[in-house]
Amino acid sequence: MRKYLSLLLALVTVLSLSMLAAVTVSADGIEKAANAIFVADSGDDNAAGTTPDAPVATLANAFSRLPNGGVIVLVGCVTIDKTEDHPRVMPAHEGVITLTSYYDGVDYRAKPYGTEPVTPRLSLRNGTADLEFHGDIVMDYLRINVGVNEDAGTIMTNAIITMNYHNLTVGEHIENCYEDPNGVPSSFDLDYSSQGNKGNSGRNCPPILFLGSSANTSDEVRDVGGETITGDYTVNIAGGAWQSVRMGDRDLENLNTLDCHVTLNITGGIFAFWTGLFHSSNLSVMCAAQAATTPNYVCDMTITGGTFYGEVCGFGKSSTNSFGDALQQGTINMNILGGEWIRNFGVDSPPVGEYGGYAFAASMTLLFDGAKVNMKIDPSKMDLGVMDQFTVAGLDGVETTLEMVTESDKIGFFGLDLFFNETYLPLTTGNQPEETKAVETKAVDEPKATETKATETKATETKAVDTKDATGTKDATGTKAAEQTGEKTGIPAYVWAIVGVVVVAAVVAAVLIIGKKNKTKE
C-alpha cells in the first residue's frame, strides 16, 4: 500500500512541476528561468553573464552558454553586423532559446541600463548578411532596430534573419525602431505604403524573415544548399514589422528541396512589402520560395490577424538572380480568415484598385508538376480598407481551389490564364472567376472564350491535409492549431496544474479509503 501511495505522490509532484514549467510568458514579460544569460555591447565576453550587472558582450557568446536552451536578456544595445566584433552566426543549440528585454518582472526597455547610452535593442546593421539562428527561437518583449547609416542619413535596408529550418515564435510585444548607434531616430517617413524619402522605400525598412537559409555578401561562396529538408516546422507570428516572410531560402546557388511540413500561423504584426506583380521575388508572405518542392511538401498558412500592405503567395518566385527556377510540387493551404489589408499604397505605388492586396496561388515564372493550392477566405472577418475589396488569382498549371466561408461581393478575380479549377459557393452572382483553358504558346496568346452557367456550380471537394495540432489531435480543417505566443490565452497553465494536483490527490484518497475498507474486512 505504501509503495502505491509513494508512486502516486511522486506522480502528483511530477505533474505539478511539468505544468508549472510551461508558464514562461506573463504580463510581466518572460518569467525567471533556470538558465539565463544577460548581454549588451558594453559587456565583456569573459564576464559571468548571469546578472544584468555583468553581461556578456555578444549575442553569439550568450548562445554558446545555452547549448540546451534558456533565456537571453538584452539589457543594452546588441549589435549584429558584418564584423568579427559582432558575429551574425549563432551557435547551434538544443531546446528553445528566448530573446527578450523584459525578464523576471524587470522591463529593461524602459530606460538605458547601467552604462548603456541607449535603451536595449537588437540592432541589425547587417543588410544582405543574415543573422543566422541554428535552433528553435522565441522572441518577445523585444525592440528590433534596423540601423541608420549616420553618414548618408538612410536606413540600412534588407536586414535578414534566417532560421535554417527551425521553429520560430514571434510574440506580440515586438517593437521596431530605426536609430543610429547613439539612439538618434531616423527622420525617414516610415509610411510602409509609400516610397518614402532619402532614397528609402518604407516597404524595404523592416527585417526579412526566412525559414531557411540565405547566401550572404558577394565575397562569400554561394555553394551552400542542395539538401533535402524533412521534418515539421512551425512559425508563429503575432507582432513586429517585417518586410516579408518566406518559407524557403534566399539566393542559394544549389537550391534546397522541401520535403517537409510547414505550419505558418499569423495572428498579428505588419507585413510591409508590396509589388502588385505575379513575378516578384519579395511579396509580403510566400509559402514556398527559392527552393524545389516534392509531392510531400505541405504548407498550412492561416492568417487571422496582422496588417498586410501587399500580397500573399503560395508558390513564390525563386529569385531575381539567375539561379534557375526549381520544380514546384506539393500542396499549399492558404487560410485567410482575418487581417487588415491595405490597398491605398501611395502616390508612387501601383495604381490604386488595380494592384496590391492579392492572394496569389503562385508566381507566373515557376515550373509546376502536380502543385496544388487550396484557398479558404472569409471576407466577413477581413478589414479591406478604403477599397473594400480583395483580389485572388489562380494560375494555369496549378490545381487551385477556392472556398468562400461567407457570401461576398468583396472578392475580385484577376487574370487571363489565371484561373480556378473549382470555384466553391457562396459567391455573389456576377463575381465568379472566369475559367480559361490552357492553350499552346503562340506569338500572341489570347484566352479562349468561357461558358458561364447561371445556375450550375461545381461541387465542393476540399482535400484536407492530415496534420495534427500540438496536442496530437486533428482539427476540423486539417491544419495545425496556432501555438500560443505572447501572453497566454484560454485556461492558464497554472490552473491545469492545480486541476491535475486535485485529480491525482482524489485518486490517492480513494486508494487510501479502499485500502482502509479492505483492512477492516480482514
Relevant terms:
globular; nine-stranded parallel β-sheet; 27% strand; twelve-stranded parallel β-sheet; 522 residues; disordered N terminus; 11% helix; mainly beta; 3 domains
Compact summary:
This protein is mainly beta and 522 residues long. It has three helices and 40 strands. The protein has three domains: 46 residues, no CATH class; 153 residues, no CATH class; 251 residues.
Radius of gyration: 26 Å
**Strand element count:** 40
Straight-line N-to-C gap: 15 Å
The percent range for strand residues is 25-35%
Oligomer, anyone? single chain
Structural class: mainly beta
Topology summary:
Elements: H1 2-21, E1 25-26, E2 29-30, E3 36-39, H2 59-64, E4 70-74, E5 77-80, E6 96-100, E7 102-103, E8 106-107, E9 121-124, E10 131-132, E11 136-139, E12 142-146, E13 148-149, E14 154-155, E15 160-162, E16 168-170, E17 174-177, E18 208-210, E19 228-229, E20 232-237, E21 241-242, E22 244-248, E23 257-258, E24 261-266, E25 270-271, E26 285-289, E27 292-293, E28 298-303, E29 307-308, E30 312-315, E31 327-328, E32 331-336, E33 340-341, E34 358-362, E35 367-368, E36 372-377, E37 390-393, E38 399-404, E39 411-413, E40 422-423, H3 493-521
Descriptive overview:
- This protein has 522 residues and is mainly β.
- The chain has three domains: 1-23 and 500-522, no CATH class; 35-187, no CATH class; 233-440 and 449-491.
- The strands form nine sheets. It has a twelve-stranded parallel beta sheet. The protein has a nine-stranded parallel beta sheet with strand order 10-15-18-22-26-30-34-37-39, with no helix packed on it. A four-stranded parallel beta sheet has the order 5-9-12-17, with no helix packed on it.
- Strand 13 and strand 14 (154-155) form a beta hairpin.
- Helix 1 (2-21) packs antiparallel against helix 3 (493-521).
- The protein is globular and about 60 Å long.
